Structures are given as C-alpha cells and as structure tokens.
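job 3f2a | input accepted
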Amino acid sequence: MSSTLGMKRMMTLPSDQEASGRTLGDEEIALLTQAIHSGTLTATKGTFTASLERRFGEMLGAKHAFACSSGSAAIHAAVAAIDPEPGDEVVSTSITDMGALTPLLYQGAIPVFADVEPSTCNVSARTIRPCLSERTKAIVVTHLFGNPCEMGPIVELARQHGVPIIEDCAQAFLARSDGRNVGTIGAIGCFSLQQGKHITTGEGGLLVTDDDALARRIRLFINKAWPYGEPNPDHEFIALNYRMCELQGAVALAQLEKLEDVVDARIAAAERLTARLAGCPGLETPAVEPGSVHTYWRYCLRVDEHEVPGGPQAMADPLKARGVLAAPRYIQKPAFDCRVFREKNTFGRSRFPFTLARPEAVDYAPARFPGTYKALRDVLVLSWNERFTEEHVDYIADAVLDAADQLRGGPDNA
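job 3f2a | predicted structure (414 res):
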C-alpha cells in the first residue's frame, strides 16, 4: 500500500501539451505533405477529411460520420440537428465545459442542469429524471474523463419520454457501455480533437449518427446549410461554417490509425496505478460500471478529507512539487455558477433565451445539486496520457502515497 518513504527523487513526466505526451510523428508529417502538395486545402474539394469521416464511422460502427472545426462545433451541430424551438429545454450536466453549453443557448434552448453521481461525476437516470418536463427536447450525456455513464437506464428513460440523447464523448474515445461504443448509443455522438484529447489536431471535432435525417441536418449545419451535391441547392436555414480543413483532416487521419494503441496504453497505465493505490486509506480509485470500458482521458481520485486531512487541495501541492500535475475539483465551480448563467449574459441586454425559461429550469439553488458539490469537493484529477511507462506510473503512485501519508501525519511527515 505505502510507497518507499523518504524517496524524493524527481522525474519529468510526459505531457499531452507537447511532444513528450503525444503520438504525433512521421505519419502525420507524411499526410500533411501530401495535402500541401495537392494544393487543395478545403474539405469540400479534398480527400483527407472525407477519408477521416469514412474511417471513423467504420471504427465506431456508425452509419454516418462528420468532421468539424472543434468539439464545441460538434455539440452545436448536434443540437442544431435536433432543432429545438426557442425556449425548449435540453438537459445537460453541472460538471462540463462551457463549449458543451453555449451551443444550447445559441440555438435558443434552455440548458437544464442535472446533478451528478459523486462516485463518477457523471449524470445518471436518477439525476436526469427530475429535470425532464414537457418542454424537454433532448438530453446531453457527458462521459466525463473517459468514464461512460450508465447508459442502459438513461436510454430507457429517454425512450419513455420520447426524447433523443446526444452523447458528449469529447473525453471518451473508444469507451464502452454494456459492450457498445459510446457515441453510438444515443441519437448523435460528439467527439473532440483538441490538444489534450486521446488523439489531436490541435482543434477539431467529429460526430456520428445512424439517423439519415439527423445526418443531413448535421452535414448542412457544418456547411452553412448548403447541401453540396444535391440538386437545386440553396442555404436552407441559419447555419455556420464549421468545416475542418484538409490540413487538420490529414493529421486526424494519421492520428486515427494510432487511436486503439493510445487507448490500450492509457488503460494499461491506469490499471497499474489503480493496483498500486488499492487499499490506501482515504483514497478511492475510479469507479467503473460493470460491463463498461473507461478510456482515461484523465485519472480521477476521490480523496476523503476525513481520512486525508485537507482533502484534494492539500494533496495537490506535494504532488505538484514532485512534478505530478493534479487538479483539485477539476472545475472550480459548477457550470451553472458561471456568469453566463448567473447574470444571463447572452445577446446584448436581451437575456434571451432565458426570458423564455420556466423558473424551475433555471433554479440553481445549491440544495438541488448535492452530488455536484460533493463530487467537486472530493475529486483530484491527475493528468494522463499514452506515453506513461510503468516507471512513470510507479513514480506517480509513490508521490500519491507519500502525499497521503504526510497529510495523515505518517512517518514521511517527520
């Protein structure tokens, strides 16, 4: 359980913010060179982005796949495909990135925040159910940190209420719930290719769906609602240019061929750390539902402040001193506590679409979110990437165990 006390060696760990923690290399350079030599850098005329879409769809077993400019653009295209009326409600999670929420507001929808399960920081059927109303247009389910939500009960709940599910898989490439790839369980799956994700083009996004009608809406929204290749084309509705360029497509295509190995490496490293930390008083390793596959965008510990005085915040400082990046709370406050929601800062002074909201839909009283506040209080998020070796993982484990011992007043605190 414990590390070798007093061992304070320093190790530089790989980082996903630069080359040491990424798989970028000759393969990406080769395809980039081909793209540049072709002279065609727009995805509407080139071949790399189209190949990426085809290959990604095949990998996930999805009928349709689309590339776009970011993970936020992917969420926006998905919401636009669902096509809410102004004032319609979309259930989301209280622990998420703003890029998954502002698209709802841009489409005139009201984000309704579901509480989370403290053990996973994910929404569940139990936390979503109180948020549903006759105005619910869709449910956005976020597979946080690469850990899938328990999708079976959520799918059944959505079926009972006749609403589609959008899966936010930005952090969950190749994660699985009950043997199915996340992103293919709901109506639409959205992915991110941002710098720190499992594979990257710096910025970029992907969507998948099996629904032909939704697929057409997604394709049009990414392309200013212009139906390329169809007879008598015209701009059919309000939409943006969210296209991925061929340079990104080339990099993403090379990255995609590495994805399965990347995921395998992250899982193997995480399982080693879990084994090393098993039984440490006050620390809980990631909780994964039976039948699910967690693909570890980040590795999350729950720290019991009654067992480890000071909790995650106190743990973070000695870890950072050892070069182990650790973020207590993940985000400093629930998403609904950001100024956009607290002050209804949207379009000019209009406060639209909040002017159309039911009071219950925008009630952010802390008493409604006990799981959220507990999850943020207890969680310590460790940076993770596919370049971690067994030696790196053992170094991280030693640092975590030493920090916990120190805070408990153990021998290392002497």
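job 3f2a | The first strand starts at residue 64 and ends at 68.
job 3f2a | closed
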